[in-house]
Amino acid sequence: MNQTLRSLALVGLCGLVATGCFSVSHKLPPHAYFGKLPAAAGETEARFERSAMKNWLLAGLVPWSSFSSDDLLAQSGAGVVRYENLVVETQFDAIDTIYWFTASWVYLYYAWAPRHITVTGDEVRSGAAAK
Question: Which of 35, 56, 71, 81 is the right S-S partner for 113, CB 3.0 to 4.6 Å?
């Protein structure tokens, strides 16, 4: 009975630790919304999509690329009042999948595990900046 309880506790502890292994924290700048705000007079919207590869160590436990989601949004330039309808995804694209498959044969995936971060949404610019 005692051995069974220890085994269950160890399995539970391992499961609890493993749940945080592949989580990604996305930072967003001020005035970034997942929904849509009412439009003000003279504002214009433009759809955007930006993607970049983020590099990880230990098969996805530790990031070694220094950028975040807010850095992808900072590429917009001047005049952006806010970002709306944001969708932030961390995904494997074709390059990531091919590397994962080939590198896993010799355990290189622990040294470099690439994933792509994609941010899509609408850039809202004021009437003065849109002209």
Answer: 56
Q: Taking the model in full, what pTM does it have?
A: 0.66
CA 84 to chain centre: 17
Give residue for tokens 């005035």: 31
Q: For residues 1 and 99, give the distance between their C-alpha atoms in angstroms, rounded to a whole number.
A: 46
Could you read off the pLDDT of 14-43 as tens digits, one per residue?
665 555 555 666 778 888 888 898 888 888
**Largest Cα–Cα separation, the chain:** 75
Q: Where do runs of H (alpha helix) occur along the chain?
A: 2-18, 69-73, 94-103, 127-130
Strands (E), the chain: 44-54, 56-57, 62-63, 80-91, 115-125
